[in-house]
């Protein structure tokens, strides 16, 4: 229901609809099996959930209480609706994954206003500050657009500034692409070449940040949920930790759907590799 000026989703999907807590719990029960170890709550904006007076933190509590032996994660959050209570719940419940995907889209207040995002860059900074104060090891990822119509070099520099300042663990970065029905089509456009150039500069900055962050994992032990066997070796499995980072697990007799404590002793490119320290 936000109708961001560049987004076609509201026109294709219609107004937001929140399913009742009972229907969500029943759907999970119908869908899970003996191998299910993780539940993903998904919505275009989970933080605007509202059903019969119940909000998103209520649903999180219901799912965590009902399925206490499973990991729970969610996507996607919107900064204007985000409740810091969610981070407090992460700190209190180890089964609620310590990952927050929070799209910033731009570091320029002028562009955020044109996007109809309904928050400022400082609003975003404050959410991140509080989240890291409550949970220092939280993983924070984001979405960022370049080449939004009307975006100046100064606006783009402000985006680079917030990326350098916040130090996201990862980011989905993309160039603006016009969509029918959207208001942004009527703004003064930025050339495709300039949008791509800015995207390349942004990717270079963020990749360096991610590399630094990944290298800091070496020597640490992560709790990793194994997902699938590597095509290269039967003694390697791909998995994800609570922060939604891809991890390669090394060891014999690894099973999909199991939780392992993995000590990271090598970094391959941007992917941590580790040996099993303990099966959970």
Automatic annotation (TrEMBL):
Residues 1-212 form the Radical SAM core domain. Keywords: 4Fe-4S, Iron, Iron-sulfur, Metal-binding, S-adenosyl-L-methionine, Transferase. Its cofactor is [4Fe-4S] cluster. Its EC number is 2.8.4.3. One of its GO terms (cellular component) is cytosol. It holds the Pfam family Radical_SAM. InterPro entries: Elp3/MiaA/NifB-like_rSAM, Methylthiotransferase, rSAM, rSAM_horseshoe, rSAM_sf, TRAM_dom. GO terms for molecular function: 4 iron, 4 sulfur cluster binding; metal ion binding; tRNA-2-methylthio-N(6)-dimethylallyladenosine(37) synthase activity. It is an enzyme of class 2 (transferase). Residues 215-278 form the TRAM domain. Catalyzes the methylthiolation of N6-(dimethylallyl)adenosine (i(6)A), leading to the formation of 2-methylthio-N6-(dimethylallyl)adenosine (ms(2)i(6)A) at position 37 in tRNAs that read codons beginning with uridine. This is tRNA-2-methylthio-N(6)-dimethylallyladenosine synthase. The lineage of its organism: Bacteria, Bacteria division WOR-3.
């Amino acid at each position: 229901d936000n109708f961001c000026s560049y987004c076609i989703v509201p026109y294709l999907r219609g107004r937001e609809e929140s399913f009742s807590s009972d229907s969500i719990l029943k759907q999970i029960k119908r869908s899970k099996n003996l191998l299910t170890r993780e539940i993903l709550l998904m919505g275009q904006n989970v933080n605007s959930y509202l059903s019969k007076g119940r909000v998103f933190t209520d649903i999180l509590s219901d799912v965590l209480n009902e399925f206490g032996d499973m990991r729970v994660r969610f996507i996607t959050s919107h900064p204007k609706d985000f409740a810091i209570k969610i981070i407090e719940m992460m700190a209190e419940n180890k089964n609620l994954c310590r990952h927050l995907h929070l799209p910033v889209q731009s570091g320029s207040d002028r562009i955020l206003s044109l996007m109809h995002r309904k928050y400022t860059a400082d609003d975003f900074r404050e959410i991140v500050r509080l989240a890291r104060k409550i949970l220092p090891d939280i993983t924070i990822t984001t979405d960022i657009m370049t080449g939004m119509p009307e975006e100046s070099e100064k606006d783009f520099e402000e985006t680079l500034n917030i990326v350098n300042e916040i130090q996201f663990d990862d980011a989905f970065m993309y160039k603006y692409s016009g969509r029918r029905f959207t208001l942004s089509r009527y703004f003064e456009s930025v050339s495709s070449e300039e949008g791509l150039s800015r995207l390349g500069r942004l990717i270079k900055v963020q990749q360096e940040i991610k590399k630094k962050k990944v290298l800091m994992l070496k020597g640490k032990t992560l709790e990793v949920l194994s997902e699938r066997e590597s095509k290269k070796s039967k003694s390697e499995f791909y998995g994800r930790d609570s922060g939604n980072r891809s991890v390669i697990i090394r060891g014999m007799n690894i099973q999909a759907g199991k939780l392992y404590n993995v000590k990271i002793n090598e970094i391959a490119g941007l992917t941590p590799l580790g040996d099993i320290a303990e099966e959970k």
